[in-house]
Amino acid sequence: MIAGEVNSEGVTHFPYARHERVVDDFVRIAYDLDLVIPFNWSEWTEGDRLVSNPHTNFNDLDLITLVKLITALIRSDKYSGGTVVGAVQNGIILKILRAIDSKI
């Protein structure tokens, strides 16, 4: 996360997340592989519950739910910068991808 900075005119810019190239590549590949699907992700409360529960066993989830999780994380990153970076850092993305891999 990049802290808010003040420019030469005294205007403070809000903090923002700076993505590493690997995160940008992941997002692009997720779209290319159709891992980002159309659904009402912003109203899907189950996704928040699943990713915030440290006991979630992603291998127990069906493929549609796993793809919905990828979609929700990527789409929410647009409105809450750093969502994907956080999910990479805490291992959620890797757990979801491994669970997807075990089902295909």
Compressed to H and E, one letter per element, the order equals: EEHHHHH
> What topology, given as strand order, has the largest sheet?
1-2
Q: Which descriptor suits the 3D outline?
A: elongated
Helix content: 40-55%
Sheet having the most strands: 2 strands, antiparallel
What is the CA-CA span between the terminal residues?
A: 35 Å
State the domain count: 1
Radius of gyration: 15 Å
What is the percentage of strand-forming residues?
Answer: under 5%
- Average pLDDT, rounded to a whole number, is 85
Number of beta strands: 2
Class from secondary-structure proportions: mainly alpha
Number of helices: 5
- List unreliable stretches of 5+ residues: none
